[in-house]
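From: lab user (bench 3)
To: helpdesk
Subject: output format question, protein + nicotinamide-adenine-dinucleotide

Hello, I'm new to running complex predictions and I'm not sure whether the block I got back is the full result or only part of it. Here's what I submitted:
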Amino acid sequence: MRGDPRHNVRAVDMNIAAHEQISAILDRQRRARLAAGAPDADERRARIQQVIDLLVDRADDIAKALDADFGGRPEGYSLMNDVVGSITALKYSRDNLGDWMTPDERPVFAPYDQLGATAEVIHQPKGSVGIIGTWNAPVYTLMSPLAGVLAAGNRAVLKPSELVPRTAEVLADAVSAAFDPEVLAIVTGGPDVADALTSLPFDHLVFTGSSAVGKLVMANAATNLMPVTLELGGKSPTIIGAGADLADAAHRIAVGKATNGGQICVSPDTVYVPGARLDDFVEALRGAYTALLPTIDGNADAVAIVSDRHAARVDGYVTDAADRGARIESAPDVPLPATGRRRPLRMVIEPPVDAVIRQEEIFGPALVLLGYDDIDEVIDAINAGPNPLALYYFGTDTAEQAAVVDRTLSGGVTVGDVMMHPGLQDAPFGGVGASGMGHYNGREGFLEFSHARAVYRSAGPDLRGEWGMLPPYTEQFRAMMAAQVTR
Ligand code: NAD
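Helpdesk reply: Thanks, we reran it on our side. This is the complete output you should expect:
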């Protein structure tokens, strides 16, 4: 049994029935693809439109299911994040795939260019793509990669998270009603089903989830040499620069942390604040967060933590830090609700390095605040850890901003706000190192899920014999080649 004791994530026993079911779908998709060939632009647009239509038709059901699955998630938020977010990505692909599909002419080397040879790069579908989603954005983490997967002419099998069973059921129902599984299928279930899916020879796999499970997925994929896009998480650092406007930064960070109850892969995790301004920032953040969510218990605007296990996980991080001497402040300043899974934002101030919250991604309504004296300390601290998925900087000092961006590496960066760059439709979204590999969104999604195939078309006679380039080799050939060994 493989295992990762730190994350308590273990490989699971294979679900044989799921393996057979998904294997049969994959086989059908492969046979259909070989019979039909690559879909043209109109067919790709029609498939994407079918997904848009099912999301529009089932938007209310999805929002209601998400509210029930979370034990409290505003329907307006679910419509914005999961439904509109997905539809926007799908429309962008639908409206641009024609341009993306245009073959890309490339120069041919001499002397064949003069003989009329041509070359181009064409983008062909890889085949069938497996897409595994998370619970925190259950529709978006499936549909946003699907936009690129379908634009590139692939077929797909989706696997929603088991932590949101009602949402998974609505999606399963809608996808099976709209699609023949030989184009798009959906399978539901837990880690055993995901394990079965990742053990099968898909032509590409998109996994969104934790770094710990990402390692298991990549190990499974390696057995079939299956290419993977891993959209993982991490501790996204947020830097308040020396000249930052504290009230503005606090407001934007509060909005980011209140979004989905902090359960977002790019949610600010650790905030570095100039030491002398730390107390002022705590008060500014408390004020800004309280303005958004003045109460927590029974407040329908506050997104609940998705499960008791995750609520206990986040509470455990805070308690562990407090036990190790960290100061804890709440926004709003209320006690933890006696029931339910809604929580105020817990600001965990200066926890020691060995506190669990300094090591693990928080992924919930808590935030680490650390004071600093010099920006170099912050850059060194970020570089000492795994590459984060996102990095945020607030401040007006352009040299400091450049130092932060140039000397660190993260999946993406937002300056002067948080969580904005993932919304760019035509810019890659993805991690680097421990926060993931590969990326999608817009054209980058089309490229990620296509095979870039070089095509050379010969023209004119074959003159290599006349040029003395073929056996039997002569001294003249050697001299000709030697003359080309140049700097
Ligand atoms: P998770 O890793 O627990 O689960 C994700 C998916 O993996 C689920 O569908 C689950 O069924 C499946 N899975 C579980 N065990 C498996 C196994 N042994 N083999 C194969 N698949 C398995 O993650 P989660 O709790 O659903 O989501 C939270 C994590 O996802 C956070 O780390 C967050 O940062 C990350 N995330 C990343 C992005 C991104 O775009 N980069 C987006 C959302 C969430």
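A quick orientation on your result: Confidence is low (pLDDT under 50) at residues 1-8. Let us know if anything else is unclear.
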